[in-house]
Amino acid sequence: MIMRKVKVVEARNHWPEKFRQEAKTLHDLLGNIVTDIHHIGSTSVPNLAAKPIIDILLEVSDLQALDDQSEKLINIGYVAKGEYGIEGRRYFKKGGDDRTHHLHAFITGDPHAHRHLAFRNYLKAHPEVREQYAQLKKQIAKDVNGDVADYCAGKNDFVEQHVAKAVDWAGAS
């Protein structure tokens, strides 16, 4: 079995368009349960090095309705992972070992959704933090030889610290 390896690359201009294409597909597929779709994660932040995986935050009116339609997502290549460690989330991945998309679905207004959006916006508004994050991610990916778990663990403290700052910053904005 080949283990998926983390690869961090410089920002790509086509990431926003890849998000828009997938967002349209998701909206067309899921219809009126979708209340909003956001591009999140590092690929949503201009000039931020990232794993080349499009992270999507899907806000829905009803998680059960999403669960009832998860077969539609599976039919277009997503793998359903349930809450996957975050209560109230539905997580889907697409692309197998050559991952292309992560889909994080929450009920509209969920605090976890707010945290994702606050962190994205904070990184956009604070280029010095964005650059620190980029350098950290590149260094960790190199240091852990692409090991996914070690990569996530290596950046966790930085992310948690800045998510907390981002939530405070968003509340003050």
TrEMBL record:
<dbReference type="InterPro" id="IPR043519">
    <property type="entry name" value="NT_sf"/>
</dbReference>
<protein>
    <recommendedName>
        <fullName>GrpB family protein</fullName>
    </recommendedName>
</protein>
<dbReference type="Pfam" id="PF04229">
    <property type="entry name" value="GrpB"/>
</dbReference>
<dbReference type="InterPro" id="IPR007344">
    <property type="entry name" value="GrpB/CoaE"/>
</dbReference>
